[in-house]
Amino acid sequence: MRGLLHYPGWLSSDEQRALAEDVRQIAVRAPLFSPITPSGKAMSVRMTSAGRFGWTADRQGYRYAPAHPSGLPWPAIPESVLAIWRAVVPEARAPESCLVNFYGPEARMGLHQDRDERDLSQPVVSISLGDDALFRIGSETRGGPSQSLWLRSGDVLVMGGEARLLHHGIDRIAPGSSMLLRGPGRINLTLRVVS
Ligand SMILES: O=C(O)CCC(=O)C(=O)O
Ligand SMILES: [Fe+2]
Fold it and tell me: I need a labelling partner for 175 at 20 to 30 A (CA). Which of 14, 93, 106, 155 fits?
């Protein structure tokens, strides 16, 4: 699939452990919350963010916000995370948002496009930690053909160019497939240029 770059095992186990700790620190300052879809349902994935903008959803819709729902600013994006962005997409502008998705054993994410950003020529970089996840990626149009791949702890995925607007989601995770985190679950970080 053009524009979709999968780097299995990009991060060593030491780097994964350090990153998991950095994510815990983000969650101390900006606790995970369950976004509410515009139709009023809580998403199964819990989220928080780092960076200038954080992604939130509530009855009013989906958007980037300058502050956590508590009113406090989002923590800075950790240097460990910025270093991955620079290594995989050296031509891109600096990321302004690092969305932290936490998937418990039952969580999933429905097929969607990432299109709340102003400059869609900038890539999205995703980093996976913890349990394996079955990622599905399809077409620009809803309901087109799709293919699946497993994202494992330490994998990095770049969605850029022609892949930037493909529908994608997480069908399920495989609880207990990784021992990185302190229990079952998966963390996904997505880095984006927003403004
Ligand atoms: O968890 C993942 O791998 C995908 C997350 C995602 O698509 C998103 O946050 O927009
Ligand atoms: Fe997405």
Answer: 14
Atom of ligand 1 nearest to the CA of 47: 9
Supply the pTM of this predicted model: 0.97
CA-based max dimension of the chain: 42
Nearest to 184 by CA among 192, 174, 195: 174
Give the tens place of pLDDT for each residue, 123-172.
Answer: 999 999 999 999 999 999 998 999 999 999 999 999 999 999 999 999 99
> Could you write out the DSSP letters of every residue in 159-173?
E-GGGTT--EEEEEE
Find where tokens 């998937």 sit. 103
Question: What range defines the domain where residue 106 resides?
Answer: 4-192
What CATH number corresponds to the domain at position 128? 2.60.120.590
- Whose CA is closest to atom 9 on ligand 1? 190
Question: Into how many domains does the chain fold?
Answer: 1
